[in-house]
Specification:
This protein has 9 helices and 15 strands. It is of the alpha/beta class. β13, α8 and β14 form a beta-alpha-beta unit. 47% of the residues are buried.
Length: 252
């Protein structure tokens, strides 16, 4: 069986593993299940995710990591002049596809670019919004890694990529193409990897649940991350307080 696991709110909150998650993943691996990590968080590179999982005791490789930054990069062609607003994970994936990443020194330098790609960026400021505004108003495509409005910390919730996107939308009137769960680019990235029996486990109905529905796989909803209102249009196969509980329900 294949398990597609969200990370934030399912495996960990920021730098703290959620109780039982590491043991649950280890058990799945010991039983021969295939585990992949599918995240809308574009901040870390695949190597950084592997290192973070290793710090918690989870062994993973590059093929097991699937991020919204990877999905966004599938929409960018080699040689495109791109304004990338994001952290290492986004920058690295755009470099991997041969994008020409432009760092404007003046606002005028943002004119005439091909594409703006916006991901989660904890240093996001007025200069970034201004550069994006100038680029988009002069004809650049607007891509965003994901629409998640918030991000869960250990106790608190802070703005996510969707909140940053909203600022740029307000300034430009342009609507972005979203790449992460549950949108087409992430669906196209993951669909070829599906097996006959696959389950997606996540904490958000709006992203993880819709993503599972679009892939046609089971959805396990956990309550250890962001809580959203029930949506009767999104099928939920299993729900529990944690990943550990979902795994126990499926494999004992």
């Amino acid at each position: 069986m294949q398990w597609l696991l969200d990370l934030d709110g399912v495996v960990w909150t920021l730098d703290t593993p959620i109780g039982g998650s590491v043991e649950a993943i280890t058990r799945l691996q010991e039983l021969g299940h295939q585990v992949r990590f599918v995240t809308n968080n574009s901040s870390l590179s695949r190597t950084q995710y592997i290192d973070k999982l290793a710090r918690f005791g989870v062994v993973a490789n590059h093929e097991q990591i699937l991020t919204s930054a990877m999905a966004a990069a599938t929409l960018v062609k080699e040689g495109e002049r791109v304004l990338a607003i994001g952290e290492r994970g986004l920058i690295e994936e755009l470099e991997n596809v041969g994008a020409d990443l432009v760092v404007p020194k003046r606002l005028e330098d943002a004119e005439g670019l091909d594409t703006v790609v916006l991901g989660w960026y904890r240093q996001f400021g007025y200069a970034d919004m201004s550069n994006a505004c100038v680029a988009i108003r002069s004809g650049a495509r607007f891509l965003a890694t994901n629409a998640d409005p918030s991000y869960p910390l250990e106790r608190l919730v802070v703005p996510g990529t969707g909140a940053l996107v909203a600022a740029v939308v307000t300034a430009t009137g342009a609507q972005p193409i979203f790449a992460g769960k549950p949108e087409d680019p992430m669906v196209q990235l993951v669909r070829p990897l599906l097996t006959d029996e696959t389950i997606m486990v996540g904490d958000r109905l709006s992203t993880d649940g819709r993503f599972a529905a679009r892939l046609g796989v089971e959805f396990g909803l956990v309550h250890s991350g962001v809580r959203e209102e029930h949506d009767p249009d999104i099928p939920v196969s299993l729900q529990a307080g944690s990943l550990a509980a979902i795994v126990a329900m499926k494999v004992g």
